[in-house]
Amino acid sequence: MPIDPAVADYLARVAAEVPPLEDGSAPSRRNRMELIAHRFPAAEDEVARGDAWIVAPGREIALRLYRAGSGVKPAIVYLHGGGWVAGSLATHDGACAALARDADALVVGVHYRRAPENPWPAPNDDAYLALRWVAGHASALGVDARRVGVAGDSAGAHLALGCAIEARDRGGPAIAMQLLIYPVVEPVFDTQSYREHASSPTLTRDDMIWYWDQYLQGLQGDSRAVPMRDSLVDLPPTHIVVAELDPLHDEGVALAARLRVAGVPVTLADEPALVHGFLRIASYAAAARRAQAALGGAAGALLAR
């Protein structure tokens, strides 16, 4: 299916109004992602925001808390995308606010340490620490500790899945659900979707090879780094979202199949005519906003069980 016309229009505006990458370096990629978020902000909303920090040995982890409405709510620990290299609380502010509204949950955005300065396992360690912090502060946050989920997009979805694996292997905290949006799963670059969308306008095959190199830096990692290497049994109910025109499409579909074989309740939404990163286009394209609302509703339904 051809790309959604409103998405194509948005991408054309970005190309015309935001300078291209100066080079392929991490600072250049970070700067351009921040510039796009500044030039094309999400629509205004009425979701309340607050900041918090986790003090850990040698570092602080910044968090942003999103709440729509009052009362005790479930919580979602959210890991932003950006290839483990780029992305921030600012670039995903609108996505987190929309998820808080659509899922009727407290969403906790996490600014984890990023590669290449902090390769595997630093981003994973911060993700798991954030999960433990939310679970441990549930009462103070107005959160139902029995209904804490993890979520993320792209590399953030990879970190969310790794977080669920670590929580399983370490005996907690309990995770009620995971929401994985166009997830990165494994460094395999020859799927059909990689071949067909190798030069996608928002993510290319070469981008992903470079991102994996920055994240692993020659290390093998464990099942948190490459989840397909190990068992996926006893993971929480999962909702996976893939985009038709995304090089990562097929690995998200394969992950859903592997989870089903492992006995994990899983649902899969395959969004037609959309590209990788559509969450950050939701304010500019109705099809992206519909997909965003649907995944938020799916997460809320899982947390309401």
Concise structural overview:
This protein is an alpha/beta fold and 305 residues long. Helices cover 39% and strands 19% of the residues. It has an 8-stranded mixed β-sheet, with helices on both faces.
Describe this structure in words.
By secondary structure, the chain is an alpha/beta fold. It has a single domain (5-303), classed as 3-Layer(aba) Sandwich (Rossmann fold), CATH 3.40.50. Helices cover 39% and strands 19% of the residues. The chain contains 10 helices and 8 strands. An 8-stranded mixed sheet has the order 1-2-4-3-5-6-7-8, with helices on both faces. Strand 5 (143-153), helix 6 (155-169) and strand 6 form a beta-alpha-beta unit. Helix 3 (93-103) packs across helix 10 and helix 4 (122-136) packs across helix 6 (155-169). The radius of gyration is 18 Å and the shape is globular.
CATH superfamily: Alpha/Beta hydrolase fold, catalytic domain
**Domain unit count:** 1
N-to-C CA distance: 35 Å
Protein structure class: alpha/beta
What profile does the largest beta sheet have? 8 strands, mixed
What is the string of SSEs from the N terminus onward?
HHEEEHEHHEHEHHEHEH
Instruction: Enumerate the strands of the largest sheet in spatial order, edge to edge or round the barrel.
Output: 1-2-4-3-5-6-7-8
Low-confidence stretches: none
CATH fold-level topology: Rossmann fold
Rg (CA only)? 18 Å
CATH class: Alpha Beta
Which of globular, elongated, flat, extended, rod-shaped describes the shape?
Answer: globular
pLDDT averaged residue by residue: 97
Tell me the number of strands. Answer: 8
| CATH architectural type | 3-Layer(aba) Sandwich
The amount of beta strand, in percent, is 15-25%
